[in-house]
């Protein structure tokens, strides 16, 4: 399930909505995802998954963790109370993937995540480019009706006038 284009969801809000246990990534504060991809078919994850998402799956294997990593996901949520084994946890720690587990099945988890309100301000989610000097000052603009987020770049090296960038 992919949220509206250019939305960012706080992983802590997902954890809270699902009442999920955290196995890897105890510091979720400030970590965001662009969506959630729900699938038990790892070939679909690799073909259609969007980088920056979380994988929601009932497949409790190392292949699920490897697929999430290759697809550039930020982590995995295992469904139906599945507990990842040590191989999965070691791989996730090594590759900096968040690993959670919830009692919910796929449908219930998707419904709960879809109900999360209050996407993260884009300005917070793009703080990494700001640290690298690409954006020095920005103003967050979010239109709840259209679901689009924009970032006003008030100082961009090499440009005289501020611009509005769709983020």
Low-confidence stretches: 1-5, 120-167
CATH class of the largest domain: Alpha Beta
Number of domains: 2
Task: Report the major sheet.
Answer: 5 strands, mixed
* Shape type: globular
Residue share in helices? Answer: 25-40%
Which architecture name of the largest domain does CATH use? 3-Layer(aba) Sandwich
Strand elements, count? 10
Q: Structural class per helix/strand content? A: alpha/beta
CATH topology of the largest domain: Udp-n-acetylmuramoylalanyl-d-glutamate--2,6- Diaminopimelate Ligase, Chain: A, domain 1
What spatial order of strands do you see in the largest sheet?
Answer: 2-7-6-5-4
Q: Span from first to last CA?
A: 20 Å
**What's the CATH H-level superfamily name of the largest domain?**
HprK N-terminal domain-like
What share of the residues does DSSP label as strand, in percent? 15-25%
Task: Give Rg in angstroms.
Answer: 17 Å
Order of helices and strands: EHEEEHEHEHEHHHEEE
Number of helices: 7
Mean pLDDT: 75
Give the SSE map.
Elements: E1 9-10, H1 11-18, E2 21-24, E3 32-33, E4 35-38, H2 42-48, E5 53-57, H3 62-70, E6 75-78, H4 86-95, E7 98-101, H5 106-114, H6 122-125, H7 127-131, E8 138-142, E9 149-153, E10 163-166
Description:
The protein has 167 residues and is of the alpha/beta class. It has 7 helices and 10 strands. It has helices at residues 11-18, 42-48, 62-70, 86-95, 106-114, 122-125, 127-131; strands at 9-10, 21-24, 32-33, 35-38, 53-57, 75-78, 98-101, 138-142, 149-153, 163-166. The strands form 3 sheets. The chain has a 5-stranded mixed beta sheet with strand order 2-7-6-5-4, sandwiched between helices. Helix 2 runs parallel beside helix 3 (62-70) and helix 3 packs parallel to helix 4 (86-95). The longest helix has 10 residues, at 86-95. The protein is globular and about 35 Å long. The relative contact order is 0.17. Mean pLDDT is 75; it is low at 1-5 and 120-167.
């Amino acid at each position: 399930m992919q949220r509206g284009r250019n939305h960012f969801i706080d992983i802590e809000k997902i954890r809270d909505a699902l009442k999920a246990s955290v196995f890897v990534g105890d510091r979720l504060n400030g970590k965001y995802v662009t969506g959630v991809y729900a699938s038990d078919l790892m070939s679909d994850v690799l073909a259609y998954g969007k980088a920056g998402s979380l994988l929601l799956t009932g497949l409790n294997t190392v292949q699920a963790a490897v697929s999430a990593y290759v697809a550039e996901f930020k982590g995995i949520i295992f469904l139906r109370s599945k507990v990842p084994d040590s191989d999965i946890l070691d791989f996730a720690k090594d590759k900096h993937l968040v690993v959670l587990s919830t009692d919910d099945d796929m449908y219930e988890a998707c419904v709960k995540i879809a109900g999360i309100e209050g996407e993260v301000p884009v300005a917070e989610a793009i703080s990494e480019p700001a640290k690298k000097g690409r954006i020095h000052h920005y103003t967050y603009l979010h239109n709840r009706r259209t679901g689009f987020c924009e970032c006003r770049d008030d100082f961009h090296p090499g440009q005289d006038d501020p611009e509005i960038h769709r983020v």
